[in-house]
Every structure is written in C-alpha cells, then in structure tokens.
Specification:
By secondary structure, the chain is mainly α. The protein has a domain of about 70 residues. It has three helices and no strands.
Length: about 100
C-alpha cells in the first residue's frame, strides 16, 4: 500500500533526527499526529467533493484534476482506515493478554 499522506516517511525522518540528537521520540504526540492526519484526510475529501461539484456545474473543465483529487482522497481515507484497523487489532491483542 502506498503512503499518500507521507506519514511513514515523515515518522522515519523524525525518529532518525531525534536519535541523532540523543533524544527519545515523544509518545504523547501520537494523538496529535493522528488528529492532524484525520484533518488532512477530511480536507482532501472536501476538496474532492468541491472539485466534483465544480465539474458538474461547469465551473471547472479539467476532469483529470477531479479524478486525481478523488483518487488522492480515496487513498488517504483507505490508509487512515487501515491504520484504525491496526490500532483496534493491537488494542484487542493487549486486552487479551493474561496477567
């Protein structure tokens, strides 16, 4: 699966930079990163919807741009959904650990 939002490459770059500086990556930033990515996906979906509406009303005539915006929004949403599924699976696994 591709990384349309650049999450994986950005996290790898940030972790490498913090390791070079002798710092540990902040775990508390996961929530903020997730919220930021959800906001970006929402913006992509809104942009794709607006582009589709503009094409249908005649304010825009580049169907290629509309298709690209729609595909980017779809890929970003699928990536976010896959991330959610992995987090839920990890939670279930931790919950089933016997103490």
């Amino acid at each position: 699966m591709t990384d349309p939002l650049g999450i994986v490459s950005r996290i790898n770059t940030q972790s490498a930079a913090t390791q070079r500086q002798g710092q540990t990556p902040a775990g508390a930033d996961f929530k903020q990163e997730l919220l930021d990515e959800m906001r970006k996906v929402n913006e992509m979906q809104q942009d794709a919807t607006q582009a589709t509406n503009d094409l249908l009303t005649g304010r825009r005539d580049d169907i290629e741009g509309v298709m690209i915006a729609t595909q980017k929004a779809d890929s970003a949403f699928r990536m976010l959904l896959a991330l959610r599924n992995k987090v839920v699976d990890a939670y279930d696994e931790v919950r089933n650990i016997r103490v």
